[in-house]
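Ticket #4471: structure output looks truncated?

Reporter: J.K.
Steps to reproduce: submitted the chain below (139 residues) through the standard prediction queue, then opened the result file.
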Amino acid sequence: PELGDLHFKESRFVCESGALPPKTKNPATLLWVERGYIVMDQRSCRGSVFEHPCFCWDAFRYQKGIDPLTSQFQCDSTCRWGLCGGKTCAAKPPPPLQRSFTVAERLLPGQLRMDTTMNVAMQSVDDLVDSKADDAVEY
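Returned output as attached by the reporter:
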């Protein structure tokens, strides 16, 4: 019943103490029911409301030099907690990567593909089993 007076905002708080409010009587059924929320002790809580603009991006895509899919969300004042969901988050978007080399220049010539000059001989497994059976000693 009192939920109409509450104003919810996106936030993150860690509280060490809380309690259930007293049950209230349902006017239709006259049964005692839970109120549906927990009352937190403000003195035991740490955290903040997400009201600071932050930029979030995929650090792996950024390091690869491809579009890091940067988004702007509301986060806490440190840009640590918010809607980024495991992505890198900061007050400013990532700077463009300085690419002074290409991928091919970083690799040595022998690392571009596997060396196939090794002599490979393929043999059927059945031939190996048959030759072992012929070599077996009879008792």
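Triage note (M.O.): checked the attachment and the full token line is present. The CA atoms of residues 96 and 126 lie 59 Å apart.
Status: closed, working as intended.
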